[in-house]
């Protein structure tokens, strides 16, 4: 449904999107994720035919967006991060105006608008002026607006921005159920991984114009943290700091790279290993007469992805 092939966009010497290849299937909900300035909006503009790629190809709904931008616009719904409505017209009137622009016959337009307003939870507010809507209500009206013309795919740029947590939850569930019920392909961009990952079938992590990883959130963490040392955490009973004793006990365990503990939690000893030697660690600690309260493998997940890539932590330069 959406096919990007070696897509690159330069602004002068600056590469905003670097050789991006991506394929999104019909009915899929795909999250294009990345921190501010990653190149998400630039990619979306190229998909919509609103920006010309420096090189590479972009096809949406089988149409070359660069060559036939008007055709793409007819088939794809686009929700920008801040939707413009006629503030002094009601929600319903705004939808009817969109219908008119898309040459939808009046009776059908009215039926569809009412149906959508109910679906998005704005039935009661249908006759209120859009200028009085909250940010969350505006985004939901925006969603109804893009659905008026029955698009095959919708592209949402930062749809959850500025909405309170309950509003975010409602909006995301709405996007998911619309996609499922109508077989709609959804591409959404966000720098809020925690929020959107729950509804995305797959995500692509985009940093400084390059796609660093692609897949489900689990696959993403496996790709991003492959080659990292395995970390095992051991909780040792008793008073005082067991660090010296654990270090000595593990000195002969092949595969152990480093043994550390934090001053504020001396009983919790963190062991970095080049491979999974959890069982040997357990044997060595117990064999040295210490009380092993717990032993667990630390899994890299959303928190680490978030910290490392979205909050400006250490950056990987490996691209897929
Ligand atoms: N018209 C332009 N001219 C020059 N540089 C641009 C232009 N548009 C975007 N950029 C630069 O390209 C990079 C990517 O911008 P883009 O808006 O695509 O990122 P983004 O991931 O959508 O970020 P945000 O979440 O902040 O919108 C940024 O460094 C931005 O400053």
UniProtKB/TrEMBL annotation:
<keyword id="KW-0067">ATP-binding</keyword>
<keyword id="KW-0547">Nucleotide-binding</keyword>
<dbReference type="InterPro" id="IPR027417">
    <property type="entry name" value="P-loop_NTPase"/>
</dbReference>
<dbReference type="Pfam" id="PF00005">
    <property type="entry name" value="ABC_tran"/>
</dbReference>
<keyword id="KW-0813">Transport</keyword>
<dbReference type="InterPro" id="IPR003439">
    <property type="entry name" value="ABC_transporter-like_ATP-bd"/>
</dbReference>
<comment type="similarity">
    <text>Belongs to the ABC transporter superfamily.</text>
</comment>
<protein>
    <submittedName>
        <fullName>ABC transporter ATP-binding protein</fullName>
    </submittedName>
</protein>
<dbReference type="GO" id="GO:0005524">
    <property type="term" value="F:ATP binding"/>
</dbReference>
<dbReference type="InterPro" id="IPR003593">
    <property type="entry name" value="AAA+_ATPase"/>
</dbReference>
<feature type="domain" description="ABC transporter">
    <location>
        <begin position="2"/>
        <end position="233"/>
    </location>
</feature>
């Amino acid at each position: 449904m959406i096919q990007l092939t070696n897509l690159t966009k330069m602004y002068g010497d600056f590469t905003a999107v670097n050789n991006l290849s991506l394929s999104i299937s019909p009915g899929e909900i795909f999250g294009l994720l990345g921190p501010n300035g990653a190149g998400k909006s630039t990619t979306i503009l190229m998909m919509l035919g609103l920006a010309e790629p420096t090189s590479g190809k972009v096809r949406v709904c089988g149409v070359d967006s660069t060559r036939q931008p008007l055709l793409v616009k007819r088939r794809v719904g686009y929700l920008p991060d801040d939707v413009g409505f006629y503030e002094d017209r009601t929600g319903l009137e705004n939808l009817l105006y969109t219908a008119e622009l898309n040459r939808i016959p009046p009776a059908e337009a009215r039926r569809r608008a009412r149906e959508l307003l109910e679906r998005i939870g704005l039935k009661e507010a249908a006759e209120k002026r859009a200028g009085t809507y909250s940010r969350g209500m505006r985004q939901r009206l925006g969603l109804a607006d893009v659905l008026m013309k029955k698009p095959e795919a919708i592209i949402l740029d930062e749809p959850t921005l500025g909405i309170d947590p309950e509003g975010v939850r409602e909006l995301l569930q709405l996007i998911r159920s619309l996609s499922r019920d109508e077989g709609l392909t959804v591409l959404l961009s966000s720098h809020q991984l925690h929020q959107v990952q729950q509804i995305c079938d797959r995500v692509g992590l985009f940093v400084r114009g390059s796609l660093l990883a692609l897949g489900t959130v689990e696959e993403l963490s496996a790709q991003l943290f492959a080659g990292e040392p395995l970390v095992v955490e051991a909780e040792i009973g008793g008073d005082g700091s067991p660090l010296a004793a654990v270090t000595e006990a593990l000195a002969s365990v092949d595969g152990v790279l480093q043994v550390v503990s934090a001053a504020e939690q001396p009983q919790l000893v963190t062991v970095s290993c080049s491979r999974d030697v959890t069982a040997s660690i357990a044997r060595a600690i117990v064999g040295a007469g210490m009380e092993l309260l717990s032993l667990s493998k630390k899994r890299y997940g959303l928190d680490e992805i978030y910290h490392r890539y979205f909050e400006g932590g250490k950056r990987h330069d490996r691209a897929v």
